[in-house]
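Team,

Forwarding the record for the chain on the shared tracking sheet. I've put the sequence and predicted structure together so nobody has to dig through attachments.
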Amino acid sequence: MPHELQPQATDELDAEAVRTWSSLALAALGRAREDIDAINVYPVADADTGTNLYLTAESADLALTEAFAKVTEGTAPTSLDQAVRAWAHGALLGARGNSGTILAQLLRGVADVLGEQPDEPERPDETEQPVPGRLLARALTRAAQEAYAAVAHPVEGTMLTVAGAAARAGEAAAAAAGNPAAVARAAYDAARAALAETPGQLAALGRAGVVDAGGCGLVAVLGALWQALSGQAPAVEPVPGRAVPVPQPPDPCEQEADGPAYEVVYLLEASEEAVGHLRERLDGLGDSLVVVGGDGLWNVHVHVDDPGAAVEAGVVAGRPYRIRITHFGDERRRARGARAQRAVVAVVPGEGLAALCGEAGATTVLVRPGEPLAVAELADAIRRAHAREVVLLPGGAELRPAAAAAAEQARVDGVRVAVIPTRSAVQGLAALAVHDPDGTFDEDVVAMTAAAGATRYGELAVAERQSFTSAGICQAGDVLGLIDGDVAVIGSDLTETAEAVLERMLGSGGELVTLVLGPEVPDAVAERLEAYVLHGHLAVDTVTYRGGRYSAPLLIGVE
């Protein structure tokens, strides 16, 4: 856990106070993480709210720490504006799950006020800049307002209710000429009181006998704010041995059987107008829709039955990336306190491939061309899989070092991990096709490794510049046909080059051809290649998939 800064009483709302608040909030969420996970029953009983809040706060704290580290470069965040914006931006980039996404928007609301103090009085009774207590109260109010606006269908009895109560109490304390610490204390006390009322406001909480898990996390964050400003630690943790007596929760598989099967989360670069249309589209696809952010960058969270459609909606709106698709079957097992015995984590180079593997039950990590795979992102995917045993499909030789490092981290946590040395997405598809979660781990790994190894892989790419290759000299714009990683054919037409690659790959035999088409390749190409295989190799079957955005023009697998 990161080093926890020690608070000192202060009346100043400055960058150092924000830094201390962030550090204390992360520490508090770390202490409460498992207890919050244990009482998570709404909107999905997937036992991850505490973890999601912690990971979101961790991302925010890291961004703030990095901003302060620039002091040696002469670009320190000397102003409150720089600090709060770095903090909120880090939360936006690292938001996890429904609760983490809402927390990111709460921090954005705080940053919108603390980062833009008005030059002119906003109220008739003010003749100068707002006193710090009033400034903090306004920040808490804006945070609650923006969080409510980010949720497609706000529900009371959740962390939104807790945020609203905290904001109202903060405004009342500020009106009484309270200093920042007094405002923070009033907000914290009101949040605790509102949290205690949540079981009576939301039926799912009342049935389970628990308070809202997201609200617990917010109480921890507000307690850290008061501690940062007053120098005093909260008397109690947000979940003191559980906030209320907790009976055994209902079987989450039965409880949520009719709900959407997948959680889809991605970052999105898009205009505000495009995001408005996206909200309408996603709202019709599923529930638990939360879209946070602004200024061209957004974090999108939704629960759906068709993850491919949710991703495609993002493509229409702008540029989605860091796409995460999670199947709730695995998450609901965690809510019962049990890990799945085995899961597959697949690294894929296309949004369509991510949706395809997600529908097959794999936890996916999307990589874009030319971007390195972060070990932390892969380690997070292994955690989200929530299994005792994990089969990891890196999908490329250059990605294997990151996969090995993430696997080693997981082994420290007691997870048995095997990395299958897949060198292409089509090898990963072949391995996933023979995955047997009911067999022994060793037998499953051997079978998946054998299937991947028995799959020859090809790829078509477009040369960006003149270069020497194993097939001769290529010019910029030439179509390159690669087989098992080496350039084997240089052509000028994609379809003709693909046919030449197929002929070479099938020359040594094969029973199944897999074609993965890039986003700009027309269906007519697939039809022609299927006909080509059928005409020359009657015993060979062909299957075609859409790789989606970020995938290569054409991937070919021959088994």
